[in-house]
Amino acid sequence: MRIETAAIEGIVAITPPRFGDHRGYFSEVFKDAWFRENVADVTFIQDNESLSAQAGTVRGLHFQIPPFAQGKLVRCLAGRIMDVVVDIREGSPSFGKWLSQELSPETGKQLWIPAGFAHGFATIEPNSVISYKVTAPYSPQHDRGIAWNDPMIGIRWPFDERDMVSSDKDKTLPRLADLPGHFSYSTQQPKD
């Protein structure tokens, strides 16, 4: 598997090799021992999947606070997305900075997002299907987020903001400046 470290410490892009012939291809998209040795020593406890029917759908920016903070391994099974992470670790040299990766089934690229980052995506194509492994179960009491259109973060989405579709919940998320600190860079661990 090919590993690319990102400009923000902790974020890793992974592209599994494909072995193809006239029938198509075969790819091992996840191997626990390899992932633990080369990316992060974590345990994934659940796989999630979402479909966004319309291009220009934005989901996020979401995260969970301790003790249910989640690491995510994200890939796109159909369509195409702009996957986005924002560093929300207090004291991090990249606090409030964002980066994005385009994910699609054609590339097979996956993005590892550890706890301490807000995550979201925008669909570039209709009927985009996202699959992601998580290190903690969903907990409504620990579910948080920041506004996907926070001007202080300044994410350059692939569509004009007026044309993007989001949930009522995501439209009311706070800005990063109004968010209490839940993660610390110095310890690389969620705060208690």
TrEMBL record:
GO terms for molecular function: dTDP-4-dehydrorhamnose 3,5-epimerase activity. The lineage of its organism: Bacteria, Pseudomonadati, Pseudomonadota, Alphaproteobacteria, Hyphomicrobiales. Catalyzes the epimerization of the C3' and C5'positions of dTDP-6-deoxy-D-xylo-4-hexulose, forming dTDP-6-deoxy-L-lyxo-4-hexulose. The active site is at residues 62, 132. It catalyses: dTDP-4-dehydro-6-deoxy-alpha-D-glucose = dTDP-4-dehydro-beta-L-rhamnose. It comes from Rhizobium johnstonii (strain DSM 114642 / LMG 32736 / 3841). Keywords: Isomerase. The record marks 138 as: Participates in a stacking interaction with the thymidine ring of dTDP-4-oxo-6-deoxyglucose. Belongs to the dTDP-4-dehydrorhamnose 3,5-epimerase family. This is dTDP-4-dehydrorhamnose 3,5-epimerase. GO terms for biological process: dTDP-rhamnose biosynthetic process; polysaccharide biosynthetic process. Gene3D superfamilies: Jelly Rolls (2.60.120.10). Its EC number is 5.1.3.13. NCBIfam families: rmlC (TIGR01221). InterPro entries: RmlC-like, RmlC-like_jellyroll, RmlC_Cupin_sf. Homodimer. Residues 166-192 are annotated as: Disordered.
